[in-house]
Amino acid sequence: MTASHDEGAALLTTLGIDHLGLTVGDLRAARDFFVECLGWTQFGGNDAYPSAYVTDGHAKLTLWQQRGGTPFDRHEAIGLHHTALKVPDQATLDALFEKVRNWPGVEVEFAPEVSGKGPKVHFMICEPGGTRLEFSYDPR
Question: Which pLDDT belongs to residue 8?
């Protein structure tokens, strides 16, 4: 028997994201960016299927080494458009941008700016492993 939405309270099926798996072009460069530049912790990995598991204490990412193919194109490919990470305040956002924009292999898409009509402020980069990342602060 299939439950319908009309049969009482909605069934809770998920509890948020456990982790996000990202395929990267350069595992070592991506891992170093998250651990050495952003201050995340590596909590595992798999040498047989090259990967590194990293966390900031809240979010968990699995970085997988790409085995070939072409870089991701958010306009042409189905899948992840970008990963957005939040920061606690404007000062942290600005300081983080100054640090990551000079990190080897980082490509800056845009510097901190108001998102839409605000008040959220964000910036976008491509980390050295090829993943598009957004960093944002929202005072709401």
Answer: 58
Give the long-range contacts of residues 131-134, CB within 8 A, separation 24 or more. 131/22, 131/24, 131/30, 131/72, 131/82, 131/83, 132/72, 132/74, 132/81, 132/82, 132/83, 133/82, 133/83, 133/84, 133/85, 134/82, 134/83, 134/84, 134/85
Please give the Cα distance from 26 to 118 (Å, whole number).
Answer: 34
CB 64 within 8 A of CB 22: yes
DSSP code for 11 = P
Mapping DSSP to helix (H, G, I), strand (E, B) and coil, where does residue 64 land?
strand
What distance in Å separates the CA atoms of residue 72 and residue 34, rounded to the nearest whole number?
A: 19
Mean pLDDT taken over the chain: 90
| pLDDT tens column, 17-55 | 999 999 999 999 999 999 999 999 999 999 999 999 999
